[in-house]
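Running this now, will post back.
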Amino acid sequence: MAVYPKFEDFFPEQTRPQISDLLATASSRDLLKATAFLNAQVHLKQRNLAAQEKIFYKWIRVFDEFPDLNERYTSFKHQVHASNGQVVLFTAHQLLQLTEQILLNFNDLPPKDSHDVADEWVQFKLWLLINSAGDEAVQEALGQQDGDIADMMLVNEADHYEFTGRKDFAYQTMLAHAFFEYLSENNDLQPYLLEFTTKKHVADYAEYLRHLVGTYAGIFTAESFDFSVKEGSEADIAFFDSFAYDLSMDQLKDLSATYSPDPDFKLIRTKPLIKEGPRQYYPLFHNFYVDKIYQGLLFDFYQLTSIQDKFKRFDNFLQHLGQEFAETNLFYRFLEGCFRPKSQFVAVPGNRYSDSEYSDYYVRDGNRLFLFEFKNSIIAAGVKHSADATQIKEAVLKKLVASTNDGKQQKKGISQLLSVLKTVANGGFNFDPISPELAKSLQIYPIIVHTDDFFSLSSVQFIVNEEFRKKFNDDPISAPYVHDVTLMHLKDILSIQFLARSGHLTIKEVMHQYKARYRIINQFVPQTPEQYQRHVFKKYEDFRSTVQDLIPEYVDQEALMTRLTEALGLASS
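Update: finished.
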């Protein structure tokens, strides 16, 4: 279990001060930039204690008046290891909480002209105070789970997963390119695209993507974590201003009247940049900046255009995109190329036949039948951060099993797959009859492909499969061998497409190896406490974690660059 150093670990003799009181003693401008810089440093090192410690020791060595900080940290570390815990110094989630507090308590104290140890000391204490408050919240949430490991993992990860690791800008760029192409090819939607690009001060959608991808890549290749816009580029400045809080104006002093502390950090998601000079910007959090490429783009597009007249609610807009765009323009295209067709190969996308229900994509490769259901669903922020395992699981089952609409039950995910399984057991479909001879050796892989990272959390796969098996056993189907249901991210499909097209593993081979590993994990009986501790977590792992060595990201770098240059409008240059 992760354990963070708290205020009490370093200052056991002191009374814990109020965060707001401490914030008032240093310039908010200096604290904000220092915290953003620290977040940029630790962003890629959240799972690397050695790298985090290097940052930590460099930080505390400036505090000459407190030479025993090193010894106090060593004592804390020994205590954690003695209790089988895992020390974690920095996480983006902590630093986002500190960033949020600085923004909501913004003061007028002038920034210092040079490095100031006193301000660093304030930031150091604030970091520890945030850890103390966060630890209390985590312990309270976990204490409500009655010791159930799956529930504890679910509640803990649901609250933090979006802030851990590095968002994939290449993946989001490819999704955004497909979205913009969908809009530009639809006569009814073209005006909304023009409205959006006009309000964002860009000539076309490729320029929108170039601005974001270019500055993000520049931040990681340059020594500084900020960036500047060329003098005279008024349109470019207007573009970045739309994502930024301007320090030269009074925007930040009024934020507390509009926002309050929020576990989803909408305050920072909305504008993930700070404008600190006429042409100078820095990111508050890289993941939220990357999200503006696609994930946050959808919300901004809805908010900035008159498409709100067509779809009165944002979730109605998302539902439309799921049906008309994501399934055909993303899922179908990504899945194509994941197989290597041979004899006895049948592949049928879900929009080919309207007279029968055969899944969103039906693929039979010899005696292996793959039934895909695609779900472009999201879990609401209020549910993710509820710290209520029952509420979270109910939301999962509503999205991936069945929901009720106007008193009528609507099949989702595994309920749809079970209906298809019945048809397969009864002889199959006109486009692919299943003979009695084939049925004897047929293996069926039910797969739900999703787009929300939430469904890749530990224990979600376990929860959904338990419900799948329960429904399967309650209404037995005389079907051939049916594997447990697999939850697979759309990005996993894309990674496998890159693999297969490069002559490596196909999805058929990946699934075969995944099921072999899955079977070993579930059949393993721990003999020692150490084996149990390792095994209990592997039991709840998601698909990607189990086969991450088999499906590296973008194995064909040349093919990746071709797609990115096309998306950025650079293919002809």
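The longest strand covers residues 368-375. More later if anyone needs it.
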